[in-house]
Specification:
- The protein contains 14 helices and 21 strands.
- By secondary structure, it is an alpha+beta fold.
- The chain is rod-shaped.
- Helix content is 44%, strand content 22%.
């Protein structure tokens, strides 16, 4: 049931993998389009403000020079100075000298004195030494911008600028970007506008400094402020600009999303089919006894004799070859197939090694049990049936993972006690990699403690102390448990373990897992000529007299 749920979830994931990538790619393309428009609006608007700052700085410098030369005098020399300044500064249309709100003279003419012509609706002069931007109040046919420099109390030089000169560098960029720039004074009057025609001035834009991209009334708006003058720009573009960019990039994004979608969907479907297919094939393999058993030798370090092996399941798939044990055992545990698989394992041990075990009581076989074995008493019945005829129970050792120990319920305790009652013995497997405690080890009828390969790998020399291994050895000794070290691959590891009283070990240093026939040859060759049998602690009475150097 749980496996079918997992398969359904995999297929749902495949559907999501087919739908989500294109949508995510399109969403990413839209965000990129908005970001691109934002960058363009910021570039044009900030650039226009910087260009305005530069023009005003240039005109302000010209007005300061004129003030320094004329000192407010009005004569023919003054007119010549004003005309020369207009000629040299391309941004200035005209320059005039003011006495408060009266024009004394301009670059094109004198005004009669002493009743000089008032400057129509002229604003008050800025403080001496200050420059101010003012709207043109002269009613001229062409729009102009007035820059006023006050050089003495009541006296000022002012210049007229054509605001269209402020956009000469950025008008082209604005049109290409599809936006329009509105240069404004902080007094909320417009200096000039340029860029794409037909884009309305934003009405409700937030003019606060530091704001990013704004969406206002179907427009995207960027506001940039001058750091020198009370001037800002509002750069606006219709939302259709984003849509156009997104449409152009959507095709590429959709193709990329579809490719990723196809790859992910195919991968998930393949995994789902493989899982589903493996489960079905595994059921067939268990039903028709197609699961093989290999044996990894266990060596008595005190005598160098082989005293048994760990029985390991192997599956040679007819189409896919050898399936990793971790893969098919995980499926077996998830689906409950681990129970009949263990029955197959026991029967194959009886058929392949039954006579050997009867002939040599010193040989023992260890068998792994999964947590599922402790939810039912089925394993007790299987062992009891076989040990009555084919297998000596005293030569079987059942390995329990720490996960199995944690489930301390009535059934689990009954299974362990039932196995012990048959004469078989129990070992805690991969000790130190789970979460069992000493109280669990003391609570169950355990005989052996297997040290995980991860800890054995920590042994780097025959003499250098490996703290974790030494601690595990002390725990096992305190609980009167024999130790079997797993994953031994180097000679110095055997020396280290033997020096600390560890008697049994297995690993590639002694032999790889092998079929039953090769294992029997391995035992015969290795033990040949030794002359004595070795026994595991607690063996059957008929082998208690064999040498046992602990």
């Amino acid at each position: 049931m749980r496996n079918r749920t997992a398969i359904r979830l995999l297929y749902i994931l495949a559907v999501l993998a087919g739908i989500l990538p294109p949508l995510l790619f399109l969403g990413y393309a839209f965000r990129q389009s908005v970001s691109q428009v934002d960058h363009e609006l910021d570039f044009v608007g900030s650039g226009a403000v910087l260009r305005t700052d530069s023009v005003l700085d240039t005109v302000g410098s010209t007005l300061r020079k004129v003030a320094g030369i004329t000192h407010g005098r009005v004569d023919n020399t003054t007119i010549g100075t004003l005309r020369q300044a207009v000629f040299l500064d391309r941004y200035v249309q005209a320059i005039a000298i003011r006495d408060n709100n009266r024009l004394l003279c301009a670059s094109d003419r004198f005004y009669d004195q002493p009743g000089a012509t008032p400057a129509p609706r002229a604003k008050r002069l800025p403080p001496p030494g200050a420059i101010e931007v003012q709207p043109d109040a002269r009613g001229l046919p062409t729009k102009s911008l007035v820059i006023v420099y006050s050089f003495a109390e009541g006296l000022a030089v002012e210049g007229l600028i054509n605001p269209d000169l402020l956009n000469e560098f950025f008008d082209h960029y604005a049109r290409e970007s599809g936006c329009r720039v509105f240069l404004c004074h902080d007094g909320e009057w417009s200096l000039t506008a340029f860029g794409k025609e037909g884009v309305a001035a934003p009405r409700h834009a937030d003019l606060s400094p530091g704001n990013g991209l704004q969406w206002r009334d179907g427009q995207l708006v960027r506001v940039s402020h001058s750091k020198k003058y009370p001037i800002y720009s509002m750069t606006a573009a219709d939302s259709s600009v984003v849509t156009a960019k997104w449409t152009r990039s959507a095709a590429e994004s959709a193709v990329g999303g579809i490719v990723v979608s196809a790859l992910l969907s195919g991968l998930v479907i393949r995994v789902a089919k493989r899982t589903q297919s493996l489960e079905s094939d595994l059921r067939e393999a268990v039903k028709f006894d197609e699961i093989d058993v290999h044996y990894q030798p266990i060596i008595d370090l005190s005598t160098n004799l082989c005293i048994g092996a760990e029985a390991l399941l192997r599956w040679n798939h007819p189409r896919r070859g050898m399936i990793p044990a971790g893969e098919f055992i995980a499926i077996a545990e998830r689906t409950g197939l681990i129970l009949p698989m263990t029955d197959v394992l026991l029967k194959k041990i009886a058929v392949s090694l039954g006579s050997m075990l009867h002939d040599d009581p010193a040989i023992h076989i260890t068998i792994n049990l999964a947590p599922q074995h402790f939810a039912t008493t089925r394993i007790i019945d299987s062992v009891a049936t076989l040990t009555q005829t084919a297998l000596p129970a005293a030569q079987l050792i059942f390995e329990i993972t720490e996960r199995g120990l944690v489930d301390d319920d009535a059934v689990a305790r009954a299974v362990m006690n039932g196995l012990a009652a048959t004469g078989a013995r129990l070992a805690v497997d991969d000790f130190g990699t789970g979460y069992s405690s000493l109280s669990y080890l003391q609570r169950f009828p355990l005989d052996f403690l297997k040290v995980d390969k991860a800890f054995v790998d920590g042994i780097s020399s025959p003499t250098e102390s490996s703290g974790l291994v030494d601690q595990i050895i002390r725990i096992a000794n305190s609980l009167d448990l024999e130790i079997i070290a797993e994953g031994v691959e180097q000679g110095y590891q055997t020396e280290y373990l033997k020096a600390r009283g560890v008697r049994y070990a297995q690993g590639w240093y002694f032999g790889h897992p092998m079929p039953a026939r090769k294992f029997m040859d391995f035992v015969r060759i290795r033990n040949q000529g030794m002359g004595a049998r070795t026994t595991l602690p607690g063996a059957a009475p008929d082998i208690q007299n064999a040498p046992a150097d602990r």
